[in-house]
Amino acid sequence: MQAFPHSTTATPTAVVVPPSLALPVIESAFPRQLHPYWPRLQEKTRRWLLEKRLMPAAKVAEYADGLCYTDLMAGFYTGAPEEVLQAIADYSAWFFVWDDRHDRDIVHGRVGDWRRLRYRLHAALDAPRHHLHHPDPLVAGFADSVLRLYGFLPRTWNQRFARHFHAVIEAYDREFRNRTEGYIPGVEEYLALRRLTFAHWIWTDLLEPSAGCELPESVRKNPAYRRAALLSQEFAAWYNDLCSLPKEIAGDEVHNLGISLITHEGLTLEEAVDEVRRRVEESITEFLVAERAALAFADEIDDGTARGRELSAAVRSCVGNMRNWFSSVYWFHHESGRYMVDSWDDRSTPPYVTNEAAGEK
Question: Which residue in the list 4, 30, 76, 95 is annotated as catalytic?
């Protein structure tokens, strides 16, 4: 089937999903959405990657569009104002580049480079304006995207976002140490760490500027809202693990739910794949229940006051975008060159990455 009614590529082709990764319920019950701003979004994010020197020009030209980073965000935050979606898409592209730098620093044993980058990202998160011209493009690009995200909602939202991303940076450091030491975390330890390395609460936080409203704690921590948010992210993380397993086994990885199941639960590769898939399918089923509860909660919030109507509409927007995350993540994994391992010359080295260290020495 077509990824979108009108394909996001210049030469439309049908997307073939391998039977082992196909989820008929996503294809039938989660219609794919796309923000109308997407074509300009793709163009502007490509230009931003070049301006911020986050990828070499040749790699941007050859790989940026095919990696489909903007497709992923344009299919998620579908009701966001254009300026908000652009900031999110640039930040998301930065996140993927950071993830690649982290991976290459591990592969090439660049412990000092990673340590310096970790400290600088913490500092840039707290004072982005002071890091806009940092010599490491990854730090400067992060500061730029964060500063723009900080401009949409009150300072309390910014502080929450910063708190959540400080935890993500530290989780990446734990993964760095695990991989350099060859340590494979147990299943429960891995799941807890994965919620941070996948940045569950960051993507959930970004639902709010997309809806144009900071949600009060009483709404964000309501069990119905929080469960729907968690399940949408768990689906994405586990489906990513399912699709990434061949790439990560090829790269001698230790961070994947399937690898933890094989190592600590004694499962065969086939059994581990089946178990990850079972969890993925269960998260979809449970989300459909949680979604109804979250929408009922949105109805309860509307008490007839202007504030009640505003919060109710914001919750409905956020829950609608949680639903969008399922289809956007699903199709992203079958369109993005990030997961087309069989087409790489070296299955352990993505062709779109730069192996050289970057930043100050």
Answer: 95
How far is 257 from 260, CA to CA, in rounded Å?
A: 5
Q: Two tokens at 38?
A: 């997407």
Active-site choice (179, 194, 195, 338):
338
**Three-point CA angle 304, 310, 312, nearest 5°:** 75
Residue 361 pLDDT exceeds 90: no
Residue 2: pLDDT over 50: no
The yes-or-no answer on residue 96 being catalytic is yes
Is the pTM value of this prediction over 0.85? yes
Structure tokens at 167: 């935890």
| Identity of the residue numbered 202 | I
| Residue 251 phi, psi (nearest 5) | -90, 10
| Residue 173 identity | D
338 is catalytic: yes
Options 4, 76, 161, 198, the catalytic residue: 198
Distance CA 246, CA 75 (A): 26
Q: Which of 40, 53, 96, 118 is catalytic?
A: 96
